[in-house]
Design brief:
By secondary structure, the chain is an alpha+beta fold. It is 18% helix and 40% strand.
């Protein structure tokens, strides 16, 4: 009987200790971690074009280009300067749920941006976006092709 009371006491004690002080917040998902890495929190991250190539040659059409990525409970947004025709001045972006190294801009699944060389620990942080771009709603002569955006932020 003493052994039974001791075991019962031990079991109740362990149950009480196991219940106290736990954090019910689940750890961030891989998608949430990737969004934080490329878009940060709050005001987002502004990426500046260190260089841009079009069809393998340097492009001067994106001088001073910036791309600010933001996350919010209502969805992911961006704003851009000097990003036309590839980026509008503002819009939405989304990670590909089956490949977190791809994003689409403004819901256009024809233009999938591949994220490579992402190093958020570097100073400055770096990321490369590559897209085989096709102008939606028609073609502006000379704008369709492969763009590579080498971006950085401090």
């Amino acid at each position: 009987m003493k052994k039974f009371k001791f075991l019962l006491f031990a079991l109740i004690s362990m149950t009480i200790l196991a219940c106290g002080g736990s954090d019910d917040t689940p750890p961030p998902t891989a998608e949430e971690l990737k969004l934080i890495e490329i878009a940060g929190t709050g005001n987002g991250i502004t990426w500046t074009a260190a260089s841009v190539t079009f069809e393998g040659s340097p492009s001067v059409d994106f001088d001073g280009m910036t791309l600010t990525l933001r996350t919010a409970t209502s969805g992911e947004t961006y704003s851009s300067t000097n990003g036309d025709p590839v980026f509008s001045s503002s819009g939405t972006f989304a990670l590909n749920p089956t490949n977190l190294n791809q994003i689409t801009i403004d819901g256009n699944s024809n233009n999938v941006f591949n994220i490579t060389n992402l190093n958020s620990d570097a100073s400055p942080a770096t990321m490369t976006l590559t897209v085989n771009f096709t102008e939606s709603g028609g073609t502006i002569e000379g704008t369709n092709g492969t763009y590579v955006f080498n971006l950085q932020h401090n």
